[in-house]
Amino acid sequence: MTDYQTEWERYRQEAKTRYDIEAAITATFAPEDAGLQAALTTAQQEGLPSIQISPIQGKLLQLLAAACNAHKILEIGSLAGYSGIWLARSLLAGGRLITLEVDPHHADIVRQSFARAGVSDRTEVRIGSALDLLPQLESEAPFDLVFIDADKPPYPQYLEWALRLTRPGSIIVADNCIRGGKGFRPAEDEGNAGIVEYNKRIANDPRLVSLALAMDDEYTDGFAIAVVKQQG
Ligand code: SAH
Ligand code: DHB
Ligand code: MG
Q1: Which atom of ligand 2 has the smallest separation from the CA of 53?
Q2: 221 in contact with ligand 2, CB cutoff 6 A
Q3: Which pTM was predicted?
Q4: Helix (H, G, I), strand (E, B) or coil at 177
Q5: Is 92 in the pocket of ligand 2 (CB under 6 A)?
Q6: Ligand 3 center to residue 77 CA distance, Å?
Q7: Which helix (H) or strand (E) element contains residue 132?
Q8: 231: number of CA atoms within 13 Å, CB side?
Q9: Which of 146, 136, 167 is nearest to 224 (CA)?
Q10: CA distances from 93 to 167, 171, 197 (A)
Q11: With contact defined as beta carbons under 8 Å apart, do 146 and 83 qualify?
């Protein structure tokens, strides 16, 4: 074999190792049950894009919900309810998930998927643009966990609302904060500008301790996690 072929083979093996590790972590810690699988099947049948979080990200949301004793969770961007099912199942007894979705067709599918997954009793899907709905949530605050995963340009505004609607000890998670590195470079478009600004703000806000973690799409995208610190 030429040196080139040997090197290529090594890269291929390393990629397979990473893939196998992710599959093993998923099988061990984050297997999907029928409710989660049905949400994905319905989403596909209805022609929705396959842009939901991964099972590992779903399990990380559950871990974070347990860490902040989540009774009240707010999600911005529901799609087909896949992340919502992970979140709803992480609630303590009597807890509630409110999820905001601008597309009525998506919202309809979310309600069906929540029913099939057995979480309708603790979830509420609100239809509208998040920036219109968020001001109405002040009377229902504080939320223990906020998950931001809707349109990208207003991420900094979603952060402002998340800070207003949480308490010390709450956790604010945002998806798609890495974007193949674009989340940290001077913005090329409006969506990236929102994410670049979001990362800068959570990294520098003295009220937060924050970290972006590469964990999705072959370690090219992932969550940014911010914990609202106790004062003093
Ligand atoms: N959290 C989902 C994926 C969300 S995809 C999951 O992991 O399963 C993004 C969703 O945000 C889409 O359903 C889109 O319709 C919705 N969305 C886009 N802009 C929005 C806005 N301004 N307000 C509320 N929802 C919005
Ligand atoms: C897109 C949106 C997401 O929330 C995501 O996780 C992946 C892709 C998108 O709009 O392309
Ligand atoms: Mg996303």
Answers
A1: 6
A2: no
A3: 0.97
A4: coil
A5: no
A6: 8
A7: helix 130-133
A8: 1
A9: 146
A10: 20, 19, 36
A11: no
